């Protein structure tokens, strides 16, 4: 559902996918921000990370935060805040960056700003293409449940084109410079994605030879709907789900409580709380409030109560019954809480890639992996890659003594997997430590 801007490592992971705030005034944004190529062919992407910091990432998944120190920028590991010894210097005149002891040159990506209309709303978009005039695949980048501008926020709009794959990014309705109000109406958002695809085709012209959707998180429900309403060549789902929003919360409670060492009896009670909250959210925040309050009163004194979180259950747990009635409409985004994605997924005919994190506590991969496996066994052209150490957003993490997760990097080869799949290549034999289930007709190189 992702209506809570996710916590800890998961929040950092989504923020890490691009730009969230204006770059520090000390560096011209046109100078610092962008994707650079190293002499060995490697890529370094530079994005904003706050009012006075930048974030770098490479194709291997390494990443760090940069803060100005005198004449250079000093890096810290992942999102840990610990110095990693890397110093970075930007040369605006030369369009280059000194990255430690290596020099990287800015890649001159081609950008076209645009506005297109869907269901009466003007949506702001951008097509980013690799240099040159040859035909390339193009990925239309969808959204999770975030409220931020994807045109500012999503770094795949640069990473993919730098690797030879065009990208069309647009602000979800009600965010950034797009019109209308924010919504989580999957069907409406799928129609917006179809309109974005049409605009990407128009702008790309003959350079676009292969088109697909990439749906991260909540976009994993929306992208298959859009694929069934349009003519795309492929579909990528990143850390998405093949279960309902209600089941996502139920699974998240079980997974999170299990990691804390609680057994089946406690998990069942925690899920009873979650079921009561689900009724409230499914009703548009109006029904079941008294019933939830009664369940909460029964369990509030239990030692495990403080550890119940889920995906959206924690929101109601932190509110009084009166608050739910008066302030709860702030969380009424039209989310189809009981939407079953399986009929839609069975109807998708184009090849699909599902990239999931085995340690995802927000959108647990267990039942989704099983369901995708049944579709593969039934003959659908789906590739499933489960990265066992990855959290939501495909980051890996370390756990602090108090149980919090600190993201340290993106899981190895996640970006390379997306690029290879978008290009229509036969996939390599391995991508990091991912467990890969392939359709029978797609052997590895």
CATH class category label of the largest domain: Alpha Beta
Number of distinct beta strands: 19
Unreliable segments of 5+ consecutive residues: 1-27
Bin the helical content.
Answer: 25-40%
Describe the global form: globular
The largest beta-sheet arranges its strands as 9-10-12-11-13-14-15-16-19
Helix/strand structural class: alpha+beta
Largest sheet: 9 strands, mixed
Whole-number mean pLDDT: 92
Q: CATH homologous superfamily name of the largest domain?
A: Alpha/Beta hydrolase fold, catalytic domain
Number of helices: 14
Structure description:
The chain is α+β, with helices and mostly antiparallel strands and 445 residues long. It folds into three domains: 19-106, Beta Barrel (Lipocalin), CATH 2.40.128; 110-244 and 337-437, Alpha/Beta hydrolase fold, catalytic domain (Rossmann fold); 245-331. The chain is 31% helix and 27% strand. The strands form three sheets. Strands 9-10-12-11-13-14-15-16-19 form a nine-stranded mixed beta sheet, sandwiched between helices. It has an eight-stranded antiparallel β-barrel with strand order 1-2-3-4-5-6-7-8. A two-stranded antiparallel ribbon has the order 17-18. A hairpin with a 5-residue loop joins β17 and β18 (405-410). The protein starts with 7 loop residues before the first helix and ends in an 8-residue tail after the last strand. The model is unreliable at 1-27 (pLDDT under 50).
């Amino acid at each position: 559902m992702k209506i809570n801007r996710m916590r800890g490592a998961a929040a950092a992971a989504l923020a890490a996918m691009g730009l969230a705030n204006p770059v520090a005034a000390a560096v011209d944004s046109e100078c610092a921000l962008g994707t650079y190529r190293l002499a060995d062919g490697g890529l370094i992407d530079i994005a904003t990370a706050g009012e006075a910091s930048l974030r770098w990432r490479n194709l291997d998944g390494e990443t760090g935060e940069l803060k100005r120190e005198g004449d250079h920028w000093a890096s810290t590991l992942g999102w840990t805040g610990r110095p990693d010894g890397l110093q970075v210097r930007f040369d605006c005149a030369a369009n280059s960056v000194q990255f430690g002891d290596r020099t990287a040159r800015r890649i001159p990506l081609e950008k076209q700003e645009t506005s297109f209309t869907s269901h009466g709303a003007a949506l702001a978009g951008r097509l980013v293409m690799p240099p040159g005039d040859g035909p390339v695949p193009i990925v239309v980048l969808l959204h999770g449940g975030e409220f931020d501008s994807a045109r500012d926020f999503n770094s795949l709009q640069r990473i993919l084109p730098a690797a030879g794959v065009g990208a069309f990014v647009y602000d979800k309705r009600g965010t950034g410079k797009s019109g209308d109000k924010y919504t989580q109406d999957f069907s409406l958002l799928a129609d917006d994605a179809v309109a974005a695809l049409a605009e990407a085709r128009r702008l790309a012209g003959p350079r676009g030879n292969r088109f697909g959707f990439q749906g991260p998180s909540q976009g994993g429900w929306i992208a298959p709907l859009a694929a069934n309403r349009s003519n795309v060549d492929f579909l990528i789902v990143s850390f998405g789900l093949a279960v309902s929003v209600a089941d996502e919360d139920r699974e998240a409670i079980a997974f999170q409580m299990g990691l804390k060492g609680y057994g089946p009896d406690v998990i069942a009670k925690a899920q009873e709380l979650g079921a009561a909250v689900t009724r409230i959210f499914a009703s548009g925040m109006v029904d079941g409030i008294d019933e939830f309050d009664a369940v909460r009163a029964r369990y509030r004194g239990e030692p495990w109560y403080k550890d119940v979180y889920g995906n959206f259950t924690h929101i109601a747990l932190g509110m009084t019954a009166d608050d739910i009635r008066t302030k709860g409409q702030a969380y009424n985004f039209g989310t189809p809480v009981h939407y079953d994605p399986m009929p839609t997924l069975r109807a998708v005919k184009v090849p699909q890639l599902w990239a999931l994190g085995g340690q995802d506590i927000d959108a647990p991969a267990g039942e989704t992996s099983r369901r995708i496996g049944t579709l593969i066994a039934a003959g659908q052209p789906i590739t499933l890659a489960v990265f066992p150490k990855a959290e939501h957003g495909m980051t890996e993490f370390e756990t602090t003594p108090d149980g919090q997760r600190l993201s340290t990097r993106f899981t190895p080869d996640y970006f390379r997997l997306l690029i290879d799949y978008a290009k229509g290549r036969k996939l390599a034999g391995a991508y990091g430590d991912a467990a890969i289930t392939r359709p029978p007709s797609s052997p590895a190189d």
